[in-house]
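cache lookup: miss for this entity combination. No prior model stored, computing from scratch. Input as submitted by user K.M.:
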Amino acid sequence: MELWRPDPTFYPSPRMAMQAPPEKVAFVAMLNAESNGRPDALGVVDVDPSSKTYGGIVGRLDMPNAGDELHHFGWNACSACLCPYMPHPHTERRYLVVPGIKSSRIHIVDTKPDPRKPKIVKVIEPKVLAERTGYSRPHTVHCGPEGIFCSALGSTTGDGPGGIFVMDPESFEILGKWEIERGSQYLAYDFWWHLGLDTMITSEWGTPNMVEAGLNPDILLKGGYGHSIHVWDLRKRRHVQELDLGAEQQMALELRPAHDPSRAYGFLGVVVSLKDLSASIWVWHRENGKWGVKKVIEIPAQPADPEKLPPMLKGFKAVPPLITDINLSLDDRFLYISCWGTGEFLQYEVSDPFHPKKTGSVHLGGIVRRAGHPKKPGAPLNGGPQMVEVSRDGRRVYFTNSLYSPWDAQFYPDGVRSWMVKLDAKPDGGMEIDPKFFLEFGDLRGHQVRLEGGDASSDSYCYS
Amino acid sequence: MSHLTLWPWVAIFLLGAYHGVNPGMGWLFAAALGMQKKSAVAVWQSLAPIAVGHFIAIGLVVAAAVVAGAVLPLQYVKIAAACILLAFGLQRLIRKSHPRWGGMQIGFRDLCIWSFLMASAHGAGFMLLPILLKMSALHGAADLGAPAPHRHGGAFEGPWTAPTALLVHTLGYLLVTGLIALVVYEKVGLQVLRRAWVNLDLIWAVVLIVTAGFTLLVPT
């Protein structure tokens, strides 16, 4: 349906989007990690502090098939619909595009009229995705000015190359493979763009065959997982430049470009360094027409009693931080970093992206630390800060604790018991755990969180 | 010039102004490029290619109509124009497709192409045809004195009528595009996009269909 006025959740600039009203519900991908034949689900979480069911699941949509491994997901439309060269502001932000990273099945979920009762309106089977694109294992979803973009980890055989495909934002037909010329790019994972610069950035994890049986130590020690990011011409759909971090940097995953479309930099999280098990944050940036990349934060591994470490880590006598997700507030001011290994969640002030200042730290879970939540004091938690989402006004931060079921089992062999928490962020830095918000998922595991009306990783903007 | 001969010119001008009001036809892009480069000069500079692209898009349609009018009975041209207008209107009502072309790093030539594509995809040129038909009918009655249904090529027979109409139309378009772009850039800001941007695509579709009706009513 076309609206008469622009969708009220669309904002021309990130600055204006920060004035948006607080979200009342959040959507969470819920994974069924047991092989009991039951499907994954999309959960609806009440995040309205004035509500009686605050912090609880108030809606649930089961997927039609078992074994999808819901992971990341995104909206059909967002503020990019206001871009001046292809404006379609009367499209509704209404449908969630929810891929299964294991099944390669894509679900289109209608969140209206009642967001607490989402419904599936279309299912795209893996066969269709394979026929139209040659890709499988869909991952990140972003709404762009011209359609819905989605990354895919690999080809139908489970090898590379992975890449990007495009969906029609109204019919949800898969239009095809995005790349015209992929250059040196082979591995895929995350992607996003600088709309003001007509530039796309993509990152690297591993092919499906490299990740689906768990983290493979042989591949890892040879530096075989992704360690580059790629710069693309968004209009010409061509590879422009590869930025290689060096093979000791393993798994260059999450990308958060500056939201302001005129700023030519962004942040990248790297999971682990083979040199010392540290994790790091890098900044890619443009100077004199050429792109470069520079390490700006390094988080060291922490020595640990091998007794407390899973088999894979015992020999190292240390727990790696494992930066598995990051997020950037809409004013490009605060960067949030999930250290899934050590169970630490960090906040940095990054107004000057090359000189970040640490402004906050919170502990929950962790391979060794098992830090608890104030709502359940004394109860050790496992898993660690992982998929993080920040509200548009930058005042609330939500995260869940599971990573990816085959990898959960390697790092938390006792079985990740999944939870979701919320932090309150202060306007000038610092953050605190909200003692009233502690959601336990029971036999499911929470993964990506999306906030009603948009959040700090759902929308992109054409105006500063 | 009597008021009878003046009003089609006013209509051509207003139609240009109407095209200019639509954010998808150029003013939004001009304002955005100004904001991107943080300079009002950039707004001014983008107006020329946007107007040129629009002019060419409209010009091609009008030229095609002139040629058609020269070789075919005007009645046929009229019906064909009405059918095309109706088809554009229905297409825009049923399925909102947009040209998927463009970006934010865009030079003169690309901006021309973009403006050309937007105007063409929205059937902008065809909206002028009933007025041009009407103008030629007026000319015909005064100059030729022949019974209307038997005339050929009357359409744009004053050789300057069609080019002048194009210029008048583009002037109306350019004035409104430039005015809104500058007011939004200098004064109002982008907040207006959230409030005042009504669904002009819907109105546009209705206008196309209504124009199709008018076209049929023009005596030839």
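stored under new cache key. The first helix of chain B runs from residue 3 to 21.
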